[in-house]
Amino acid sequence: MEKQELKEQWTEETIREYVKQAAESEPIPDKLQPKQMEKWLKQAMEEKGGRSMKEKKEKKSYRKWWCATASAAAFLAVVLFAAGRTIDWERGVPKELETKQSQEKAAGKETEKGASYQELYDAFSDIWKEQDKMTAYVEERSTDSAGADTGGEGGAELFAESTVEDAGVENSSPKESSGSKDYGKTNQQEAEVEEADIIKNDGRYLYQVVFEDRTGRQAVQIADTRDGLKEASRIEEFDHEIQQIYVWKDSLVVVESGWVNEVQEEDKESGNFLDSVKGVVDEMFSYGPGEDYREMSYSKIHIYNIEDRKNPELYHTFTLKGTYRDSRISDGYLYFFTSFNAYRPRLEKDYQAYIPEVDGEPLAPEKIYLPEDTKTAAYLVMASINMEQPDQFTDTTAIVTGADRFYVSQNSIYVTDSMYVDYGTEGKQSDSTRIFRFSYQNGIMKKEAEGTVKGILLDDMAMNEYKGYLRMVTTVESQNVQEVKDDITGEVIGNDGIDVETSNSLYVLDENLKTAGKIENLAKDERIYSARFMGNAGYFVTFRQTDPLFSVDLSNTKKPKVLGELKISGFSEYLHFYGENLLLGIGMEADEETGATDGMKLSMFDISDPSDVKEQSKLMLPYDYAMALYDYKSVFIDTDKNLFGFSAEDYEEDYRLEYVLFTYADGAFQEKMKIDCSDSKVYSHTVRGTYIGERFYLMCANGRIEEYSLADGSKTGELEK
Fold it and tell me: H helices then E strands: how many in the chain?
């Protein structure tokens, strides 16, 4: 039995029973009798580690061999000597202590290929060695250049950088809260697959992630729009970064993620006998004297019952090791993705370092897929939850992969892993992307296929499934990797790429992720800036000095063909189908000779004839930057309502932040509303827009909400932060 699996089975009763049996079968000194050991251990823990609960929650970075370890080790030796003559870490534990995890293989839930912990350790070993070399090199150079230690304490206080600004706009809730059916929804990849965001809207209530000025922490604000804006409630019980939220029927999902010390896990804080033993064992088997605790990233999924919006009640919390990456809700199930880095352990059996954990338990080997030619010591951990009964995970699995981008159709989960040129290998090389496809149904995920294409995906909308085929566009960078020699000594100091060439490709992959059709070597010396697919048509933009908008016929999956290429100045960073025959582009204007950008630009393309696409209208905007260029969820858009909007910034002279709302009529863009949000004392840097009926709402991350009339743009109310 693996150490981690054994540890999971220690209950207070089983430990007491083993010690009791040991006392009956073996002569044990009085000082090591069970009652005396329990008394001593409790006393030692109180004296040496007896911090208050408040102190324990302060997440201080320490991991010391406290003086009680030797005696605790003696106690553990008694347990293992008495009961463990038939136990070792490899062979397993007595039948009565077999884990539930081992007993329940969950038929039908396994991935195509499971990997043993030993296989995973072996696969990571060479990667860890290279990481150690790189770490040593960086530390050496840092010391040489800075002349001082660049480390220091307080690492445990640093949480993952906020990704709040990398979130979205509104929600298509399956059930309105006695409100309007005419309201803004999240801008997402698939209409029927829900995506999380930093703001949500259910037709009556507005929900948003806000910053607490007093504490520096975040909270979730719920505002009632009926009979004037007013705050219904605020949930403030979060220690780390709130990444995104969902509103699903009468449930609120809050995703929290951050970095913590292993010793500070909740199971170490209860102060009971079992928890004390676990803490001692962790120290004895995982670390040596003077070693600090390892810092790990954790993600939490909090499910709240919000039938009463004024009094949200926490229903359940799920925990996964790893950094939150993405999620979806489809057919009533939440699918959740985290990235977990496999750290090099002190001992091979220190599974906490390199095996993912779900709700405090290591993922079973049969649930972990190890692809061939693994070049990363990281996992994508996938979990599902039934939103109708969210009290346990429906399914969990993991893949060893770097996982760059995600696309979830109504039937499949696609995960991509970018594989860049290896400068350690000489010769002609190209970037490539590995793709994994999982089917999902009723919360059960199953790996179905994997494949590889040339190039890297550079846009979130560059993947789309249609009639069982995956269409994708990539940018391919090829180069010749050669040795680099020192100019003076002639010594080989490394490798570098020369003769770099860039082109773009379109691929059509079947359900097995085999190439059915492709177009390669498009737009040489340019790269993909945006892409969009609809039915049998695909559109993508490349850029160098001008903006070629390619239109592609995909009706013949084996022979896709370019229909047209529209060249205009500038480029579109985001594309959105605006009705049946129009395609909206949000991007930048650029000089046709130099490619230098010169403010933002809106373009509306006429795609009624894909072979002859025309720029029907354009509008120059006096802004230098907008999150809309890089995050599709930051774009509020409702084509049925003929409205779209986003916040934009101008850095010329005095800084200016404005929220702009547009409509499109009579072949031209029309500014519907413009709100100046430059005053940092009133507005936050992050502002979003949504609507309910004929009211538009400006939502600020500091908790401020403003209400405007869509009829005339007048301000009709506000909720101050």
Answer: 8, 40
